[in-house]
Amino acid sequence: MLNIKNLQAKVEEKTILNGLNLEVKPGEVHAIMGPNGAGKSTLGHVLAGRDGYEVTGGEVDFEGRDLLDMEAEERAQSGLFLAFQYPVEIPGVSNMEFLKASVDAIRASRGQDAMTSMDFIKLARERCKAVDLPQDFLKRGVNEGFSGGEKKRNELLQMMLLEPKLCILDETDSGLDIDALQVVADGVNALRNPERSFIVVTHYQRLLDYIVPDYVHVLSKGRIIKSGGRELALELEKHGYGWIDEEVA
Ligand code: ADP
Ligand code: MG
Ligand code: MG
User: Fold this and answer.
1) E strands in 144-238
2) Is 181's C-beta closer than 6 angstroms to any atom of ligand 1?
3) Is the CB of 78 under 6 A from ligand 1?
4) Residue 4, SS3?
5) Parallel, antiparallel, or unpaired: how do β-strands 53-62 and 65-66 relate?
6) What pLDDT shows up at residue 86?
7) What pLDDT is recorded for position 109?
8) Cβ(37)–Cβ(61) below 8 Å
9) Residue 85: its pLDDT value, please?
10) Which residue from 20, 41, 46, 51 has its CB within 8 A of the most atoms of ligand 1, so it is best to mutate?
11) Tens digit of pLDDT for each residue in 5-23?
C-alpha cells in the first residue's frame, strides 16, 4: 500500500527526514515512536503534502502511484487521512457542513454524486453514536471550544465518514484521559480491516495496549533506526531510546 524509500525532507532549510524507509501493507498497523524532534510529525505532514515541507530525495509509492507527485487534495481523495496532533478550529463553519463537504469531495473524486442532506445527517448521527460524541457537536463550529478528547472523537468521526485506506494518527493520545483513549482506540479498532492500514505515532506504549500494532518502529534523527513487534514498545518504555542509539552506533 505504502512504500517509502530513502525519503529526505527539509523544513526551513533544515534537513529533518534523512533517508527514511518504511513499507506498510494492507491491513497492517505500524506504530512509530521516537524522541521529541525526531521527525515523526514531519513524516505525517510530508506524506499528507502539507505546505512548507521540501522533499529533497527519495520516493513514496501509494497504491502504485507516486504520492509525492500528487497535490494534497488528491492524496486525501485517493484515501490518505492524517489526524493532526493539534486539530484546527474553524469557527463559523459547522461541523456538519465541514464533514459533508469532505465526504462529498471524496465521492466526487470517485465519480459518485453528493449525498442528500437527509442521508448524510442520518449517517453522521449514527457515527456520532459510535464515537460517543453527542449529536449537537454536529451543529457547532469545527472543533470550536472542543476539549482535547472531543477533538479526537471528532477526528475519529471524520475518519469513519471518509473511510480512508491509510490513516496516519499523530499523537492521538496526547492530552486524553483513559476513557477518551479507550474511545479512540475502540474507534480505530472498529475501522481496522484487511484493506485499511494505520500509522500510529505515539510517545507512550499505553496507547498500544489498546491499539495493538503489527510493527513498532523507532524514528530517530529523521530515519527509522529500529523495527520490531509490539514487544519493542515495552522495551522502549522500560529503557528509553538511548540504548538503540548506542546499538546503532
Ligand atoms: P516530532 O514529531 O518527532 O517530535 P517534528 O517532526 O515535529 O518532530 O520536528 C522535527 C524537527 O523539525 C524539530 O527539530 C523541529 O523543531 C523542526 N521543525 C518542524 N517543523 C518546523 C518548522 N515549521 N520550522 C522550523 N523547524 C521545524
Ligand atoms: Mg513532538
Ligand atoms: Mg510530533
Assistant:
1) 166-170, 197-201, 215-220, 223-228
2) no
3) no
4) strand
5) antiparallel
6) 63
7) 86
8) no
9) 56
10) 41
11) 999 999 999 999 999 999 9
**ipTM of this predicted structure:** 0.94
Q: Is 216 exposed, middle or buried (0-12, 13-18, 19+ CB in 10 A)?
A: buried
Q: Which of 11, 172, 225 to mutate to test the pocket of ligand 1 (most atoms within 8 A of CB)?
A: 11
Q: Distances from the Cα of 192 to the Cαs of 64, 97, 184, 199, in angstroms?
A: 22, 27, 12, 12
How does pLDDT run across 109-154, given as a tens digit for each residue?
889 999 999 999 999 999 999 888 899 999 999 989 888 778 888 8
Q: Which residues of the chain have pLDDT under 50?
A: none
Q: Which amino acid is at 183?
A: V
User: Which of ligand 1's atoms lies nearest the C-alpha of 34?
Assistant: 3
Sheet with 215-220, strands from edge to edge, namely 80-83, 166-170, 197-201, 29-33, 215-220, 223-228
Which one-letter amino acid corresponds to residue 15?
T
Cα(96)–Cα(81) distance, integer angstroms: 18
